[in-house]
Amino acid sequence: SAHHFLGYIQNHDQVGNRALGERLEHLVGMDASKVALGIVLTAPFVPMLFMGEEFAASAPFLYFADHEEEEMRRLVSEGRKRDFAAFGWEEAEVPDPELVETFEKSRLDWSEARTGKHAEMFDWVKQLIQLRRQSVDLNDGNFGHLKVECLSEERVLEMRRGSVRVLANLSDAPATVKALGGESLRLSSHHAIVSSDTGIVLPGMSLAILVSGAE
């Protein structure tokens, strides 16, 4: 069963081990982050969301530490700066992990989930979770009805899980995917996604979830 595995797009190691602790949304923007979360939350694995990912938190997740021994504090701070200097970072740019302010910058502002793009992402994640919980095909961990393929050269990823079809346009250009009989558009990451008998039109970097039959 896929429920023996976690599926995620970012975690504390991937984010915290960057020089400046940037989250996925900081690097690729809202549209791509919504697509990534759409794939994670419709994939057969047990989904894991990294703290604040559900509302596109603005706070970075920096590497921080609090060693009591002064020598250890010095070694950790200098080692961190030295490691990232090898990747072209200026030492002054790399936050000191032993400073309290480095920890404080990593705190989440939970009020963000109620405003602007953060509320938009939070609503998207809640809709995805609700759909997953209500759908047998999205909630069974069964690899038997999973089909994944890339459609033509348009960089559209198609994932089928029984009655559910997920279409992710991973390019910057619009793409049109053939419609299937009896399916309806259940969720979309972008307001400009259009579904009709002639096809599903996906703007660049967008995701649509279609359901057919009783689901």
Give your account of this protein's structure:
The protein is of the alpha+beta class and 215 residues long. Helix content is 30%, strand content 21%. The chain is built from six helices and ten strands. It has a five-stranded antiparallel β-sheet, covered by helices on one side. A three-stranded antiparallel β-sheet has the order 6-9-8, with no helix packed on it. Strands 1-2 form a two-stranded parallel ribbon. A hairpin with a 2-residue loop joins strand 4 and strand 5 (164-169). The longest helix has 19 residues, at 116-134. The mean pLDDT is 94.
Secondary structure topology:
Blueprint: E1 6-7, H1 12-16, H2 24-28, H3 30-42, E2 46-47, H4 70-85, H5 100-105, H6 116-134, E3 146-151, E4 156-161, E5 164-169, E6 175-177, E7 183-188, E8 194-196, E9 199-202, E10 206-212
Helix pairs in contact: 3-6
Q: What keyword list fits this structure?
A:
215 residues, 30% helix, 3-stranded antiparallel β-sheet, elongated, alpha+beta, 21% strand
